[in-house]
Design a protein that fits this description.
123 residues; four-stranded antiparallel β-sheet; five-stranded mixed β-sheet; alpha+beta; 9 strands; Immunoglobulin-like; single chain
Length: 123
């Protein structure tokens, strides 16, 4: 019985270690709004927060906007590239056809790309 308990404990410990090891090589990016509404001539700002594991802590982040944005919709990042924990994206509409557009704003760290879906309504 004692041997069975030891085997179970070792298996549990190795599984827990493997899961923690996996979590050590990860980053999470969140955005404060999943939907924004703006008028033509207007803008909206989104705030991004990065939680990085130790292996990503000193890595450069690159923010990326999709290449297929509706005509007249622009996105600028501050900062766009560098070592940071927070970033802002400013969406501006200038003569955009009214409607709702789903766009993915991405971040890249160490060749790992993550996207945040944002619904943009232009009135």
């Amino acid at each position: 019985m004692k041997n069975v308990l030891i085997v179970v404990f070792v298996l549990f410990a190795s599984t827990a270690f493997a899961q923690n090891k996996k979590l050590l090589k990860e980053y999470v990016v969140t955005v404060d709004q999943s939907a924004v509404s703006l008028s033509n001539g207007g803008s909206a700002t989104l705030n991004f927060t990065f939680e990085k594991s130790k292996s990503f802590a000193n890595s450069k982040v690159t923010m990326v906007a999709p290449g297929n944005l509706p005509e007249g919709l622009t996105i600028t990042f501050e900062p766009q590239e560098g070592k940071f924990e927070t970033a802002k994206a400013t969406l501006s509409a200038n003569n955009v056809k009214p409607g709702t557009y789903n766009i993915i704003l991405s971040s890249i760290i160490q060749n790992n790309k993550k996207g945040n879906l944002v619904s943009v309504t232009v009135q």
